[in-house]
């Protein structure tokens, strides 16, 4: 039986955490309010505290809270000097404190995430280039309809690959402090 090495496990950890959160998050339901977790720019402290308590209560019974916390720490969420968010049942200040207490472990985890992401980006770019340089009708027979169908299928594959590449690049830009559309 194939067993994953500890290095491989480290490199797939983020995807596993994200899949768990996507599948079980209490805040992802149809009637959930993503704004609940973030203080608005002009929101007074009393109003924010009430919402903050509500958000923390929602997280308390969340089945994927541990995975959510680890992702929040890897993402660098929370600041020691700002009371502006809740994630995984912790305020931004609490997340910053946990991060400060686990600096080395988190730095290694973030590095592994970036390695994994970089390899994924390289693979997708190679696939995109290969697909783009392939003539969908080379050495094949068929009428005009078949040719059109093969071209349409190739266009779909190109669009899907480009979308995945864009998603990774956007996530990197956001983490580096750029706006999503920058
Ligand atoms: S712990 Fe809270 S923020 Fe995280 S997924 Fe669950 S409900 Fe959402």
Question: How does this structure look, described?
Answer:
Pfam families: Whib (PF02467). Keywords: Plasmid. Residues 26-97 form the 4Fe-4S Wbl-type domain. It comes from Streptomyces pratensis (strain ATCC 33331 / IAF-45CD). This is Transcription factor WhiB. With 182 residues, this protein is an all-alpha fold. The chain folds into two domains: 6-101, no CATH class; 115-175. Helices cover 65% and strands 2% of the residues. The chain is built from six helices and two strands, in the order H-H-H-E-E-H-H-H. The protein has helices spanning 6-24, 45-60, 65-75, 92-101, 103-132, 144-175; strands spanning 86-87, 90-91. Strands 1-2 form a two-stranded antiparallel sheet. Helix 1 (6-24) packs across helix 3 (65-75), helix 1 (6-24) packs across helix 5 and helix 5 runs antiparallel to helix 6. It is elongated, with a radius of gyration of 22 Å. The protein starts with 5 loop residues before the first helix and ends in a 7-residue tail after the last helix. The mean pLDDT is 83. Iron/sulfur cluster binds next to helix 2 and helix 3.
